[in-house]
Amino acid sequence: MTEQIANIERAATSAIQRAGTTQALEDVRIQYLGRKAELPNLLRGVAQLPPEERAATGKAANQARQRLEAALEHKAGELAATELDARLAEDRVDITLPGDPLPSIGRLHLMTRTRREIEDVFVGLGFNVAEGPEIESVYYNFDALNHASTHPSRLETDTFYIEPDPAHPAPPDIFDPSTRLLRVHTSPAQIHAMESQPPPIYIIVPGRVYRPDSDATHTPQFHQIEGLAVDEDVTLADLKGTLLTFARAIFGPEREVRLRPHFFPFTEPSVEVDVSCFNCTQGITADGQRCPLCKGTAWIEILGSGMVDPNVFDHVADHGYDPEKVQGFAFGMGIERIAMLKHGVPDLRLFYDNDIRFLEQF
């Protein structure tokens, strides 16, 4: 009987050594130490052996079982380590990579989003995006745009002038064409653009502008988008159709626009442009109240525009802009105003307070 036990132990030990996976090792354990295996059955049958064989057989079987259990445990440790190394190599995770999903790292400011949205509309209509300097001369900011010498916007109360010599400050000469200033509108870019290319020209000019104002609806620095279209046979109807497309793209497909006579130095005729209110019906909101957005008028003023004044073309006639041959329209709008109207922002200064609670709403 002891020889039989030794044979079982040798076979089991060999099988344990050959096992290449934890599952194969488990199969070996069941085969040699499971409930139906030969060695456990020998142990259970020791009581039926002759008395002189019981002690030796029981001792040999128990010792064989203990040695096999130790061998199984040792082999299991080796296989577990090997398989772990294999899994780590196969399923490596680079802990230097960011998590998934990525943490929030911010978003575009509402002003940037609104500017890009407006740009997309006009680019889709065939306009190009142009830029102009923020530090301008009196010539480009006023003279070339047909501003009279007595126009109030030339005053120091309405314009930021730049001292030519800070060490010897002196009142700026607001009538000197070379006097430098921070542009009060993006319109000077019209002149720069027409000087740089002949007609036809279709451009929009987004950018920062500066005026000495500060209250709920004005800030010393704000943003405008200027538009200019010059070609042959351009009419006021083309201007209205362009702005109607813009209004419907920004404020909704049901919008209408209306033009009201106005005055701007660089357009003739000049018009203010209103868009039908998108917050009410005929000035009344859904709850029967007077609309706070349009003040019950059913219209909201959004921008100023008009046909380019021939006097403006006179300044760039040498560049191909003969007022007898070409005509065009121009318009300008405040990006902040468009954002305020579209998103119901009550105070312009909220755009610049950097309050994360406000910014995260958009």
What layout of secondary structure does this protein have?
Blueprint: H1 2-18, H2 22-33, H3 38-44, H4 51-90, H5 110-124, E1 128-129, E2 135-137, H6 138-141, E3 180-182, H7 188-196, E4 201-210, E5 221-231, H8 236-251, E6 257-264, E7 267-276, E8 299-308, H9 310-314, E9 327-334, H10 335-343, H11 356-359
Rg of Cα set = 43 Å
Q: How many strands appear in the DSSP assignment?
A: 9
Fraction of residues in helix:
25-40%
Number of domains: 2
Q: How many angstroms does the end-to-end distance come to?
A: 86 Å
What overall geometry do the principal axes of the alpha carbons give?
rod-shaped
In CATH, what is the homologous superfamily of the largest domain?
Answer: Bira Bifunctional Protein, Domain 2
CATH class wording of the largest domain: Alpha Beta
Mean pLDDT value: 87
- CATH A-level architecture of the largest domain: 2-Layer Sandwich
Residue stretches low in confidence (pLDDT < 50, at least 5 long) are none
Query: Which structural class best describes the helix and strand composition?
Result: alpha+beta
The assembly state of the depicted protein chains is single chain
Element-by-element helix/strand order: HHHHHEEHEHEEHEEEHEHH
